[in-house]
């Protein structure tokens, strides 16, 4: 091998080692912790929220509701760095969420929400690139959808500010593949709004989703969660 070529290859190899070392340092010592799972809003968050309908105008829970401003949805997966950090939760979220629900007495008879997949982002550009190119492919599959398939019965009309936890079933569609899934939610009537938070366990292979593991670098576990925080208004 000519000396000049050997020198160039050595420099390239050295840069590769430095890049990997930098990534190792970032993954293990610099990156921020993932945001916590969604929960009902705190008193401080409620105080900072401006609603479009005053509580005194509220005329009961019966009827249709729509997803409004402040709603979010996204994913949570666990990443293990080869030879380093373990159990790191990676989270991507978006506020581009639409949906609706209908209440009749004490029963949620219909509910659905739709997520704009292309707008989901995390704290990592590299992860987002993988998400768009290998994992979810929003140019082909622009929306992810959840549709409730079994009514949710609260048992009684909820009082303002009281948390209610219920479990149900629905159809989750990711990349045009639909599967029946259980869903657990916590809800609360607060003024003229209904808050709903919950999560759905997802196995990638059930939806034909390629595992985004980066060989010899990052191992992404085969399961994850779809998470949501929905604010319904009239």
List the keywords.
234 residues; alpha+beta; 2 domains
The ordered H/E elements are HHEEEEEHEEEEEE
Annotation field: number of helices: 3
Rg result: 22 Å
Low-pLDDT segments: 5-30
How far apart are the first and last residues' alpha carbons, in Å? 74 Å
β-strand number: 11
Main beta sheet strand tally, sense and closure? 8 strands, antiparallel, barrel
Give an overview in words.
With 234 residues, this protein is α+β, with helices and mostly antiparallel strands. It folds into two domains: 1-30; 34-233, Lipocalin (Beta Barrel). 19% of the residues lie in helices and 43% in strands. It has helices spanning 3-30, 43-47, 125-135; strands at 63-67, 72-81, 88-94, 97-104, 107-116, 143-148, 152-153, 163-174, 177-190, 193-203, 218-233. The chain is globular, with a radius of gyration of 22 Å. The protein starts with a helix and ends with a strand.
């Amino acid at each position: 091998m000519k000396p000049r070529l050997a020198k160039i290859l050595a420099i390239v190899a050295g840069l590769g080692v430095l890049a990997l070392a930098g990534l190792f340092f970032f993954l293990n010592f610099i990156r921020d912790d993932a945001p916590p799972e969604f929960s009902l809003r705190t008193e401080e968050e409620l105080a900072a929220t401006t609603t479009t309908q005053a509580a005194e105008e509220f005329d009961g829970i019966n009827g249709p509701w729509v997803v409004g401003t402040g709603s979010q949805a996204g994913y949570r997966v666990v990443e293990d760095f080869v030879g380093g950090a373990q159990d790191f939760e990676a989270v991507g979220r978006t506020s581009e969420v639409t949906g609706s629900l209908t209440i009749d007495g004490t029963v949620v008879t219909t509910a659905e929400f739709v997520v704009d997949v292309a707008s989901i982002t995390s704290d990592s550009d590299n992860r987002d690139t993988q998400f768009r190119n290998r994992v979810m492919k929003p140019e082909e599959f622009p929306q992810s959808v959840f549709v409730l398939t079994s009514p949710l019965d609260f048992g009684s009309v909820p009082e303002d500010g009281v948390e209610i936890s219920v479990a149900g079933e629905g159809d989750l569609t990711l990349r045009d593949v639909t599967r029946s899934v259980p869903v657990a939610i916590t809800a609360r009537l607060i003024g003229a709004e209904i808050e709903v938070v919950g999560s759905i366990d997802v196995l990638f292979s059930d939806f034909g989703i390629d595992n985004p593991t980066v060989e010899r670098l990052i191992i992404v576990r085969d399961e994850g969660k779809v998470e949501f925080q929905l604010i319904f208004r009239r």
